[in-house]
Write a structure and sequence with these properties.
Length: 169
């Protein structure tokens, strides 16, 4: 079992018991403002997401549930190809949790995958996510207009990359 720990966090596999806390986050319009899907309207939608994450974890332990005191507060990691992403319950915003989590997760991803780089995309209006990616060493590669349409509202994307650093010897 792959578990990463930081000063405040335990980063672990997705578990069935995370469902209610995940739904609380994924149904929150503030949390989902810059996400690529609409807020979840029912537990069934979140259950499908959780089921996909549990199945994906069995293949590659790279997309972590962020927990404090064994309670789900978000997730972060590599969820498709070389792309990373993160989601955090608004109750935990502006506390440095995602940078703490990602500083543990990124070396793990590079250690167990052959990705030459990690990529991410964020709405350019999402200053917090764009700033976090830059603090983690990602650089912006390009932008695109009208990449997501959620409930009739179009969003743009800023794309970022973090190359694998060669091992120092």
């Amino acid at each position: 079992m792959t578990v990463l720990t930081t000063e405040r966090l335990v980063l672990r596999e997705p578990l069935a018991r995370d469902l209610d806390q995940m739904f609380a986050t994924y149904s929150d319009p503030a949390a989902m403002r810059y996400w690529s899907t609409a807020p979840h309207k029912s537990l069934d939608v979140t259950q499908e997401l959780l089921d996909r994450r549990i199945a994906a974890w069995a293949e590659a332990p790279v997309n972590f549930q962020i927990t404090i005191d064994d309670t789900y507060i978000g997730n972060a990691g590599n969820f498709s190809g070389d792309e990373i992403g993160f989601m955090l319950s608004p109750a935990y915003w502006r506390q440095g949790i995602l940078i703490e989590a990602m500083r543990a997760i990124i070396p793990h991803i590079f250690a167990i995958t052959d990705h030459e780089q990690l990529t991410a995309d964020a709405d350019p209006l999402n200053a917090a996510s764009c700033g976090l990616l830059r603090k983690l060493g990602f650089h912006e590669t390009h932008r695109a207009k009208n990449t997501f349409c959620i409930n009739g509202v179009w969003s743009d994307s800023a794309y970022f990359a973090l190359p694998r650093r060669p091992a120092s010897g």
